[in-house]
Amino acid sequence: MRVPALLAAFAIGLAVPAAVSAHVSVTAATPAAGSTAKAPKAITLAFDKPVDQASAAASIVMTAMPGMANHGEMVIRNFTTGWSPDRQTMTLSLKKPLSAGTYEVRWQTTATDGHLITGVVSFDVA
Ligand SMILES: [Cu+2]
């Protein structure tokens, strides 16, 4: 009688990846993660499935600047957020191009299973 119980536990274990697939992730970004861009005026995040816009948010943080040793985190606020009609691409439109430095785009949204999903895309601006 122990074997069916074990099999049931195994089947429950297998069900976990199906729940995880409710989560969204970023599949592509511009500027691309790890790349060096020149004065970008827009940042796009492409998700693998439609995103709940009501819970979605992104922040742009400058984490380093050439010639400045202890920069700390500087939040960039001068942008507006837009979405593609299919809700899979978020565009952050900057009023001024980003100046030279290192940036993190930190995003979050609530998945269809109610879990908070977060991610970071980092890139440099030369
Ligand atoms: Cu989840």
Essential attributes:
alpha+beta, 5-stranded mixed β-sheet, 4-stranded antiparallel β-sheet, 44% strand, elongated
Structure report:
The termini are far apart. This protein has one domain: Immunoglobulin-like. The chain has 1 helix and 9 strands. The longest helix is centred in the first third of the chain and has 19 residues, at 2-20. A hairpin with a 5-residue loop joins strand 8 (101-110) and strand 9 (116-125). A 5-stranded mixed sheet has the order 2-9-8-4-5, with no helix packed on it. The protein has a 4-stranded antiparallel sheet with strand order 1-3-7-6, with no helix packed on it. The model has no long low-confidence stretch (mean pLDDT 89). Helix content is 15%, strand content 44%. It has 126 residues and is an alpha+beta fold. It has one helix at residues 2-20, and strands at residues 26-30, 36-37, 42-47, 57-64, 74-76, 79-83, 89-94, 101-110, 116-125.
Topology of helices and strands:
Elements: H1 2-20, E1 26-30, E2 36-37, E3 42-47, E4 57-64, E5 74-76, E6 79-83, E7 89-94, E8 101-110, E9 116-125
Parallel strand pairs: 2-9
Antiparallel strand pairs: 1-3, 3-7, 4-5, 4-8, 6-7, 8-9
